[in-house]
Write a structure and sequence with these properties.
heterodimer, A: about 100 residues, mainly alpha, Helix Hairpins, 3 helices, B: about 170 residues, 2 domains, about 70% helix
Amino acid sequence: MDIGLSHYLVLASVLFCIGLYGALAKRNAVVILMCIEIMLNAVNIALVAFSRYLVPDAVLISGQVFVVFVLVVAAAEAVVGLAIIMAIYRSRRTIDSDDIDIMKG
Amino acid sequence: MGLEAAFWILAVVSVGAAVAVVLCKDVFRAALFLVLSFFAVAGIYASLDADFLAAAQVLIYVGAVGILVLFAIMFTRDTRHGSLFNKQHMFALLFAGILCAVMIYCMVETDWAALVAGGNAEPLPGSGGGLTESIGDSLFSEDGYLLPVEISGVMLLAAALGGIVIMRDK
């Protein structure tokens, strides 16, 4: 069986849901951030696959250009997110998301 | 044939490493599995003729983000507890499983070939030669994405300054 668009899309769905499960179910804030990076990677796979299979034109590669922007935003998000996590660790000596509940009503 | 084998190996490695990120008790090992997953995704990009993105993935994710995550873990590691699940993990597993099933059903059942004007999806012209030139053309041309590129440059500067300001000693 030939590898087609749906193979890549199913791979992207599986990776996205693994990342979603981790982001919802883990307590360590760094691991939550890592799972969000997995979700962003899954979306990137879907974008590249759509660009490769649905727009067979070398000039119109908006899908790959969007992936470049997602990479930039993910790098910025990792920097700010990890800085916030380390600032929280410095003041509260924990990064357990169950213990960081000062915003709770 | 070679491409099929490469796809299956890379898919199994990337999904397996992502599962290991979620299930690993040791946060440091989870981060190393995350780097392995990023590397396999770079291979997936290469199998889709996106050679520039594969290189960028290795440089940005495997290099920069991987090192940054390991750095943050070394600062904040809680070796006694490691990476635990919270109280809602059964509900999260159920939700993620249902969403995964629905998404796979939609992806498999949709007739993607009907969306392409020319019928069946064909490989890009000049595939194997690389698409870096057309990415550069569309990123840096006036009628392309020049303004978003400049805005994202400003955003990266703001993120770097924000990271410094948040982490600075008062």
